[in-house]
Design a protein that fits this description.
This protein has 203 residues and is mostly helical. The chain has one domain. Helix content is 78%, strand content 2%. It is built from 6 helices and 2 strands, in the order H-H-E-E-H-H-H-H. A hairpin with a 2-residue loop joins strand 1 (84-85) and strand 2. The longest helix has 56 residues, at 2-57. The radius of gyration is 25 Å and the shape is globular. The N and C termini lie close together (11 Å).
Length: 203
């Protein structure tokens, strides 16, 4: 009876090891390709609002309305603060256009300089984001009305702050994950041996 229980425990330990290795492989793929994946996602997020007016103009209003409705959760979509293409409004405002397309484009640029670019400091990020905060706040409280040029410039500065501050830190974090997984890969039988030792002690 004890030998059966021990064998069953050993099989369960082996199954857990295979599961752990499978999870490690998934994490390793994401750790290696996080930037490409993120650039694809930000590219899609930036492009869909630009697709909406084309869908309206080409006779697909229902598809366009889905995009407009989805982006209402992230943008006010005021016509006076948005660009129009093909006679129809883009699904996000001028500032959001600069932010989201800026994050996408700068993400592509970061792929070229990721090995040499150091993370932006908190102070640097604050200074780059400050113009958008001032421009948006003074417009919100009615002190002045911003222009499309200011919305684009301040939005791009905010995108620069976001990518420069966040992406290098993500790269450092994923580099640590890759290093940990590489060490595990060098000793693939370690967890199995530990499981066998536990079973032997238990029996």
């Amino acid at each position: 009876m004890e030998s059966r229980i021990s064998a069953g425990n050993l099989i369960s330990a082996g199954e857990r090891t295979r599961l752990e290795r499978g999870v490690d492989r998934v994490v390793a793929v994401w750790a290696r390709h996080w930037l490409a994946s993120l650039n694809v996602l930000t590219g899609l997020f930036a492009a869909l609002p630009l697709l909406a007016p084309w869908l309206m103009a080409s006779g697909h209003p229902r598809l366009a309305e889905i995009i407009y409705l989805a982006y209402r959760f992230v943008c006010h979509q005021k016509p006076e603060r948005s660009f129009f293409v093909f006679g129809h409004q883009i699904a996000y405002c001028q500032r959001d256009l600069a932010i989201y397309t800026g994050v996408f484009v700068l993400g592509l640029v970061y792929a070229l300089v990721r090995r040499s670019l150091h993370p932006l400091s908190w102070r640097g990020a604050f200074l780059l984001a400050l113009p958008m905060a001032v421009d948006g706040t003074t417009q919100l409280v009615g002190l002045r009305e911003s222009t499309w040029q200011l919305r684009l410039v301040t939005g791009m500065l905010f995108a620069l702050a976001t990518v420069w501050f966040v992406y290098p830190r993500l790269e450092l974090g994923f580099a640590e994950i890759r290093a940990v997984l590489a060490r595990r890969e060098q000793s693939p039988n370690e967890s199995v041996m530990s499981a066998r030792e536990e079973v032997c002690r238990g029996s």
